[in-house]
User: What shape does this take?
Amino acid sequence: MYFSGEAPYPRERFWESNAMMSFFFSMVLGGIFGYASERLGFTHNGYVPSIIIAMGGTILFFFVGRMFGISFGPPGVNALIASAGALFLIPTEVAYRRRNKRGRR
Assistant: This one.
């Protein structure tokens, strides 16, 4: 059976898997959320940095969620929560460093 040249299970092509579709969908949602948060005035980083921060949070949460089985629901909800968390945490840390740097002088 195993030596007949067939795999013991049906193989799926890489781009046809649901994981890849949910990854790209999550990336698109993260980018849209980053743009919208900047457009609506929730953040003041600039359009490109906000999109990069939001997509970075989405990538990080996607892979951590896949490795450890952490999820808040569908991939879209995970993408929105990860983007919002990244947009909140990253600029807050940068502002905190700026304040402390000014206080040293």
About this structure: Residues 18-104 form one domain. The radius of gyration is 19 Å. The first helix runs from residue 18 to 39. The chain has three helices and no strands.
